[in-house]
Design brief:
single chain, GDXG_lipolytic_enzyme, AB_hydrolase_fold, alpha/beta, Alpha/beta hydrolase, Rossmann fold, hydrolase
Length: 273
């Protein structure tokens, strides 16, 4: 994990495996917990520190969390997924932020910002924070409910026409769609699900944009606050959609229209969370 403060970007390691920012306690109201994507196989560095720094420049505190992952070949061999461990990672982060006064963010509102599979992880915490698999036998300090979510081209649904097979296989440890249904996030939305800003590109061929649509629809049907932004074109994994996150400096995914998601998300958080 790495922590970025809105007014001070200097970092240093500590024993919790974090890189906290040095300096005075933050006066910010929110902390953004960035969950990179990667199909639960790896963590995309394009959706990592640069995203957190972008939020910090906009006046938010931001945290990058590196949760458990496992390559799908290993999952198929072991028949053990990483979903539970990944959810516990996020739960521990929420608990630590609310409990540890030394981090200076115990009164912040916690917003999970997940990309692709990280979006599924964020939505899973938003809808399953009271699930017995997460709460039984654990001594959490308080509620694990996030205060809000930013879901960026998220994996959401286990429906056969929408499911991202690798993500659900790695999450559950099973290749049987029947074993995925409990983690189909749109089915777990309730009236108490935290507000969500959701965005996707219509031309995403990796994770269909209807994943975002069904989650937004479920939120609205339950009276929850949600904003859905669909961009007319763009590849999966756009991240900030700026030049600073490009892999090969060819700027293929840099798109000024898609890049507006960040300011829109910030406005939603400040208004609705």
């Amino acid at each position: 994990m790495a922590i970025f403060r809105a007014r001070n970007h200097a970092v240093a390691p500590n024993s919790f495996g974090t890189s906290p920012v040095l300096g005075a306690d933050s006066q910010q109201q929110y902390v953004i917990v960035v969950l990179p994507g990667g199909g639960y196989e790896f963590l995309s560095y394009r959706e990592d520190r640069k995203v957190a720094l972008a939020f910090a420049r906009m006046g938010f505190d931001a945290v990058v969390l590196h949760y458990h992952t496992k390559y799908v070949e290993e999952v198929r061999f072991s028949h053990r997924g990483v979903g539970h461990d990944a959810m516990v990672d996020v739960a521990m982060m929420i608990d630590e932020l609310r409990r540890n006064s030394h981090l200076g963010m115990q009164h912040h509102k916690i917003v999970l910002c997940g990309f692709s599979a990280g979006g599924h992880l964020a939505a899973s915490l938003c809808t399953l924070y009271n699930d017995p698999e997460l709460t039984t036998g654990a001594a959490w300090n308080g509620s694990l409910r996030p205060d809000g979510a930013i879901l960026c081209y998220p994996v959401i649904s286990a429906r056969p026409d929408l499911a991202h097979v690798t993500s659900f296989t790695c999450f559950t440890g099973s290749e049987r769609p029947s074993d995925w249904q409990h983690y189909s996030c749109e089915q777990n939305v309730t009236s108490d699900t935290p507000p969500a800003f959701i965005w996707h590109t219509v031309t995403d061929t990796t994770v269909p944009y209807a994943n975002s649509l069904v989650y937004a629809q479920a939120m609205w049907e339950h009276g929850c606050k949600a904003q859905l932004v669909l961009f007319p074109q763009g590849e999966h994994g756009s991240s900030l959609a700026t030049r600073e996150v490009e892999l090969n400096n060819d700027f293929a995914q840099a798109d000024p229209l898609i890049a507006t998601w960040l300011t829109q998300a910030a406005a939603f958080v400040r208004r609705c969370v």
